[in-house]
Structures are given as structure tokens and as C-alpha cells.
What we know:
Radius of gyration: 22 Å
Shape: globular
Order of helices and strands: EEEEHHHEHHHEEEHHHHEEHEE
Strand content: 15-25%
Structural class: alpha+beta
Number of helices: 11
Number of strands: 12
Amino acid sequence: MLKFQVHSPGKVILHGEHAVVYNRPALAAVVGLGTNLQFRQQAGSQVASFQLDALNCTLEIQLGDFNAFLENFRSKYPADSTAKLMEEVRGEVSKQLERAAGSTPKPHTQRAFISIYYLLAGAVLSSPKDPKLALQTGFQVQVDTELNVGAGLGSSASFGAALAAAFLILSGHFDQENYSQEENQALISSWAYESERVNHGTPSGLDNTVCTYGGMLRYVKGQGFQSLRIQKPLNILLVDSRVSRSTADIVAKVRHLAEGFPQLIEAIWQACEELVTAAVPLYESFGNAQDDSAKFEKLERLFQINNDLLKAIGVSHPKLEQIFTIAFKRGFFSKLTGAGAGGYAIVLLPENFECNEVYWKLKEELESAGFGVHVTTAGGVGLRVSSLAD
Length: 390
């Protein structure tokens, strides 16, 4: 019986948020927080059960119904008809949820179930082992996460990548020991992107890429990504403003601003691109112990410049401003990350920050002000699969 666990990290955008929508480069990195998935096949069971701790719900798929759905789909469409598969899954999930709950479930729950059903169906339909594969044995999946949903840390991509890896292993695309081979990582990332379509319609592809591959990436929409050759992860403090917001609404607001002041906003996007160009060699050389303090100071200044550019397009928030003020008062540099208007801020932390009394005062003041504070890193390992103990 298959039994394993998947850890899929979240991400932060270090530089280039919003500009990336307009085909400018962005720098993103995985963080030391993520989604944890445990997978256990269950002999004799005909149910696939999903316990989603973050949404406080359990979802079930009856294998008989699922296999009937696959057979019906195969009779109507080619196996690679992903657009049609998404359409058919939405209809099937809607019927199942209404039948089970008696009413329309919450949007987060519905989107999660669509992602699960779509990724599972897609993995089975494209199985290299058996083009007519049907699931014979039930299984249990438990998912918990350290990432706040909808806060700009790539929670949906992290969730999608973890599910994709599990279902691809289940349906025989690769063994759990071979998940890190290049072609298998590419497959995980591509299906995680498909999952992102459920949540975001037309995602950039950045989140699923960095959550799968890890490290730091330079990304341009439509042109793929380049991995940075960093020496070591960066120490950061993630500060949760506890302000929720809609990424789509904020992107639309910035687009409206760009339409009203095209030359001015274009100049800001150009500055964002120049900033990424300046940042890449600093990240790649930081950590080799040569002039690290000078490089760190330059990174701090780039954080400040980047944050001011983002403020100029109107995506800050009073709570974020409070975080920036508290950090700056203690001598630390910070910026918003992601869409802004809430969500998270990043505070750069120097080497040996834990020995610095001022750091502990910063952490205490942020927590006293009601913010969520997480000490972590940017630029660590990506998705990984490991064995699961009894």
C-alpha cells in the first residue's frame, strides 16, 4: 500500500510584484513555510477521503462514481482535453457538493474540491501505465498548511503542487523516490499551474514554478524562469498584516491607474526592472563572506526603493505602513510582498540576528501591535516527497 508525505513550500515575491503583470521580470523565492500532505492507501476501501485542516472540512470521492466519470469522459473526449476536463469537473463537483451538503458550500471549499477532482482525474487519465486506468483502492489524504489562505504567500499553488505530486505518484507517472528528476518536476509544476487556473483564472505561472523548484527564480511572464545561483537562503521576518484582500481587485485598480497615467506608470515598471537587474548579482554573491555587510546594505536600500515604488502605485495599506514604521524605527528595512493592500510584509534580517537585542524588541513590538510574525528564510528547497512512518 502506498504511503508517503509531501511538503510543498510557499513563496514570496522579493521584487517585481505588479510589474510582472506587464511582462517585466520578478524575483521570487520559496519560504520556510508550506503545505504538508500525508497520503495513505487503505486496503478494502472504496472512498478517497480528504481532510483539509485549513478549511476545517473533509471531502469524499466515491471511487465508483469517480471511475464512472472517467469512463464517460474517455468516451467523449481525447485524454489530453484539459479544457474540457475542467468544464466537466466543475459540473460534476457542483452536483456532488450540493447532493452531500444540501446547499452551495463556501467558495474556498468548492474551489478546493474542484482542484482535487480535476488533478486526480487529470493524473489518472494521462497515466503512462494504463490509458484505461481506474482506481481500485481507496485512500486518505490529510492536508495542513502554515500558509494563510489568500495572503500572497502562494498557498493555492503550494496546495496544488502537493496534490499534483501525490496524484502523479498514485497513477504511476513516477515513483516517490524519483520526484526530483527534471521531467517529473516539470510535470508537477504544469499540473500545479492547472490547479491555479481553478483559483485565479489566468495565473502567471510564477507561484507553481517557484513552489515546485525552490530556491530563487527570475521570472518573466510568457518567457519562463531562470534559477539564481544563490549561496545560501536569506533570513527574513514575515509579518502578517491580518488584512485580507482580493488580488484580482488590486490588479484591476493598478491597471486602471496605468491607463490613466501610461507614461508615468511605464516609468515605474522600468524602474522595477532596473531594480531586479541590480538585485540579482547581490543575491547570487551574498553569503560567500566577502563584503557581505556591504551587499546586505545594498539589499536593504533596494527593499526601501522597491517599497516606495509600490506605494506610488497605491497598493500599500495603513496596517502595512505601521509595520514599515516599527521596523524602520528599529533599524530594519522592509517591503510589502505580493499584491499589497494587506497581506504580508517582509523584513530583512542580518546574519546572527538572534544575537541582536534590537531584533527581539522588533519582534515583541510587532506582536504587541497585533501582527502575526514568522521567522523564516527565502530561497530554500522546493517540493519534496518522503516516506511516512506508521
